[in-house]
Amino acid sequence: MHADELLVDDETVRRLVAAQLPQWSSLPVRRLPPLGTDNQLFRLGDDLLVRMPRIPGPAETVAFEHTWLPRLAPHLPVAVPAPVAMGEPGNGFPWPWTVVPWIDGVTPTESSYDPEEWAVELGLFVRACRDVPAMGGPVKTEGRGAPLPSLDAWVREWTDKADPAQVSRDAVLALWEDALAAPSYDGEPRWFHGDLHDGNLLVRDGRLAAVIDWGAAGRGDPAVELNAMWGYVPLSVAQLYREAVGLDEAAYRRARGFALAPAISGWTYYRDTAPETSRGALETVRRLIASLD
Fold first, then answer.
1. In this structure, how many other beta carbons lie within 10 angstroms of the beta carbon of residue 258?
2. Along the chain (293 residues), what's the average pLDDT of each consecutive run of 10 residues?
């Protein structure tokens, strides 16, 4: 999926575990199918999961998750994969990596949950995350959850690269300008996940069971969590999700900007390497533009 991607085989993971975490050296290692864009996953025995970054960016979040997820977890209503160990580079692998608990669950689909219940459950999770004490956690100064102008160059660069036959460049920029013109967030920075979509959520028995992959998390503008309205949350219950999250009109307008930034880039970036991801991003861009009418 990435030009600078590093693929790791099972044997490398076995050697790293044996050398650095010998208490688990006898456990079997089994690669899982690729589920995301940032990490390779390996089942370690029955109760653990090894997460190996595939590219440098996610590798930079390993220490963040190792430090902060154990502190966030007690405040949240569902499970989060708080790391139980952090590995170091070795055996030709250049980055730190983590071991987290295995959490039973499946990727949510409309056949595995009631959409209305799901919209409310996810919204209540967002509220709970927003209410977690600051604890001195890092405040975002750029990117997701940071002041929206920090994404301006990124959005304009990827808008220029996008296929104008698929989506009007003027429509994309009108949406972006509206988000920038919204009143800025001037409250206390709040905790957020920052990447709520079906690949980062687990369902068990029809209920939200876990929220995983916290690489985009931090403290900042809580509007960023509304981005799920135009990506993952079914259109039929998007307004219900918005009500459950409970933010004002200014946040809604900023949220469209936060949703646009990864969608406009993902549409083009993954066009050849991950067509399904690219199509999902394009659909998000189209939903966002339609919401401006």
1. 27
2. 73 96 97 77 96 77 92 96 95 92 89 87 96 97 96 97 95 98 97 92 91 94 95 90 96 97 94 90 96 87
